[in-house]
Amino acid sequence: xxxxxxxxxxxxxxxxxxxxxxxxxxxxxxxxxxxxxxxxxxxxxxxxxxxxxxxxxxxxxxxxxxxxxxxxxxxxxxxxxxxxxxxxxxxxxxxxxxxxxxxxxxxxxxxxxxxxxxxxxxxxxxxxxxxxxxxxxxxxxxxxxxxxxxxx
Length: 152
Prior knowledge:
Distance between the termini: 71 Å
Structural class: mainly alpha
Helix content: 55-70%
Mean pLDDT: 78
């Protein structure tokens, strides 16, 4: 584990790959609030701003959670709520960075030719099995539409 130091007992507080002077690397924004300067000047206004961002982000995340079992882009909405939170809260920025890194790693892994061949093979095998089961069901029971069922 890279703690940013070679001496035992020392740890780096920020895990965002920031340079020593606090400037972020390679176009990444630093951690922290992105509220306008006039909002940051007043403690009460900044706290109100944070509460507003939290409530809006929470509403979006809850809407995404509701969309998971229902029709709708649930995960996209959840990540949009996390992005709203990430405009103001460091913990959400870190979660969003971790998620982006994991999605990028998964995309790179999925593009690997061996993995693609394996996934295509498993998909074809699964479709063949489903086709066989569907054929056996139709052979055994036939096609009976619900509106043609006779009372017995």
